[in-house]
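User: Hello! I'm new to structural biology and keep hearing that structure can be predicted from sequence alone. Could you demonstrate with Secreted protein? Please show me the input and the output so I can see what each looks like.

Assistant: Of course. The first part below is the input, the amino acid sequence of Secreted protein. The second part is the output, the predicted structure written as tokens.
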Amino acid sequence: MRRWTIRSLLAVLVATAALFGSAAPVAAGSGPPPADEVEPAWFGGGPITLYVLLPGDPNGPPPAPDPALPAADVFLIAPVDAAHPQDPGVVIPSPPAPFPIVVPVHDTVVATSRPYAWRANCFGVQVLPGPAATARTVLTRPDPNGGATLAYALRFGARTVPLTSAAVIAVGARLGLLTLDRSWPGYGGTCWTGRPRR
């Protein structure tokens, strides 16, 4: 059972997500340290595992990003399969949080130039309907816990495209169909991916 703290909240949101830009590979033979969180995620439309070291954890990264690592965005989307979300939502009471926080029920999309064995400072980003969105073009699911209503697919005519790839999320943002909300939670720790799952 998870300990729901601010650090766990950040890890949950970090695990929601896609990563843009280059990322530093893990040195050969050194291997990454043990993860505080291991989360299922999407990468290029397929399943992958995301590992997270929480900020401020005694065995994890420092409370601030490591300047030696690249920055990467991790995107939180609504569950692609509503009956089987990758991560359930939770309400974190106050205390331990400074104010009550609602974590949406969500899935995670990861995108990077390297599909595995890299490390980066990760920043949580919520994927919301954009200014050009309509109920027909952007499909959303409300969080039953009262959190954000997140997007999970785009509809182009009769075709529905799930947001399981960062490339699709980027196109949706460019078209104004999606808003990438970077206001919260911010830095969520050091992340890397495992090999694609089957």
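User: So the tokens describe the shape?

Assistant: Right, they're a compact way of writing down the 3D structure. Reading them back into a model, for example: The radius of gyration is 16 Å.
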